[in-house]
TrEMBL record:
Organism: Sediminivirga luteola
Protein name: Membrane protein
UniProtKB keywords: Membrane, Transmembrane, Transmembrane helix
Keyword Acetylation included in the entry's annotation: no
Transmembrane segments: 6-22, 34-53, 65-82, 94-116, 155-180, 212-233, 239-262, 274-292, 298-320, 327-348, 360-383
Matches recorded under PANTHER family: DUF819 DOMAIN-CONTAINING PROTEIN, PROTEIN, PUTATIVE (DUF819)-RELATED
Length: 384
């Protein structure tokens, strides 16, 4: 059992290094369908489930500290050379997609509650309403709705387990969907020309050599900005339960990243590579907290949660087919709702780093609206 934080981080980095080497050098067919970061997610989650990662203060401190440091830095680098004007040209359809995603999740909770209502605990609707706030906003929204509706502690404990497990599984599905985006887009007959413009912009960096100066500039600057953003975010006033220090930090690096994108610094070679390294570390840390053995503690609530995401997935697939929407918008909108501000930009970056602002925007919209959506869901479930 690993209880030392430094060893824990070393194991994750070693796993990531091996996976990246095999993926880039060996060209195995498996990686055409399962990206390397998905393999890392599965491997780290499996080790944690098997008890390799112990429950120690050292691991928690190192893991959360590294993740807090790298997440803003990664978002900043992913926003380098991002043309905001092209994002604006994507039009109102992105907002429609996000709205449909939130509505589909609410419908999923209604369908799931109707199926399991007679089997769940009395007052289970209160816990499910809190869970719906989390899946359309974030953990802060979940706690807020739990406090407002006074969900019983035992039920709230069950939905916390469901939140962790189903979120982990859904995040895995979203990461894996990157490999099937072309096939999905052909099925929906989606027009991806606006995404191709951003992808073409990435190729401009290929001609620029990555040297020590560029790597040092990117690493030092991004981590410095991350540290400053956390300091500023920590002293800015919190507004309600949604606008917290973390929210301010993500907003700061996002705005700064967009500004830098129009400067010469934004064209520094290697931003993609450095951001990708950070992406692997963050995914490994997130996955190391996934423990699928807790599935036995709340099987009915877990099934109810799975029904929610299945209904959500079906509705979004139908929506994509009818409106000819590409998989990127669907996946990022879904992750922004179910995952939140920490995972939506990561999934967006996995598809196309030029579109990270869409993930940030979606997640922030969800953070503001999740509480109200959760209360609305609770009101609907209460009268069923």
């Amino acid at each position: 059992m690993i209880t030392d934080g430094f060893l824990f981080l070393g194991v994750l980095l070693a796993m990531a290094g091996v996976i990246v080497y095999v993926e880039r050098r060996k060209q195995y067919a498996l990686f055409r369908y399962v990206p390397g970061f998905v393999m890392l997610y599965l491997g780290a989650a499996a080790l944690n489930t098997a008890g390799v990662f112990g429950d120690s203060e050292s691991i928690e401190t190192v893991g959360s500290g590294v993740q807090d440091a790298l997440l803003p830095a990664m978002i900043l680098l992913l926003l380098f050379r991002c043309d905001v004007r092209k994002i604006v040209r994507l039009g109102p359809k992105l907002l429609l997609t996000f709205a449909v995603t939130a509505v589909s999740i609410v419908i999923g909770f209604i369908v799931s509650y109707l199926i399991f209502q007679g089997l769940l605990d009395e007052g289970s609707w209160r816990g499910l309403a809190a869970l719906s706030a989390s899946w359309t906003g974030g953990s802060a929204n979940m706690v807020a709705v739990q406090g407002i509706l006074e969900a019983p502690e035992n039920i709230f404990g069950h939905v916390l387990i469901v939140d962790t497990i189903v979120y982990s599984l859904w995040l895995l599905v979203m990461f894996s969907s990157v490999a099937f985006s072309d096939r999905f887009n052909r099925w929906t007959k989606a027009d991806t020309s606006h995404l191709d413009v951003h992808a073409a912009a990435d190729t401009e960096d290929e001609a620029r050599p990555i040297d020590l100066a560029s790597l040092m500039t990117l690493i030092a600057f991004s981590l410095f900005v991350s540290a400053i953003a956390w300091q500023i975010g920590g002293v800015l006033p919190e507004i309600g339960i949604v606008v917290t220090g973390t929210t301010w930090t993500i907003l700061i690096v996002s705005v700064l990243g967009l500004i830098i994108g129009s400067t010469r610094l934004g064209k520094t070679a290697g931003s993609t590579e450095v951001a990708t390294i950070m992406l692997y570390v963050i995914i490994g840390i997130i996955a190391s907290g996934s423990d699928f053995s807790s599935i036995a503690e709340a099987p009915l609530y877990l099934l109810a949660g799975l029904v929610v995401v299945i209904v959500h997935g079906l509705i979004m697939a139908i929506y994509a087919k009818l409106t000819r929407t590409e998989l990127f918008s669907i996946a990022v909108a879904s992750t922004a709702n179910i995952g939140g501000v920490a995972s939506a930009p990561v999934v967006a970056g996995a598809f196309n780093r030029q579109l990270v602002p869409v993930g940030v925007l979606f997640a922030l919209i969800g953070a503001f609206g999740g509480t109200f959506v959760g209360l609305l869901t609770g009101q609907i479930l209460a009268v069923l």
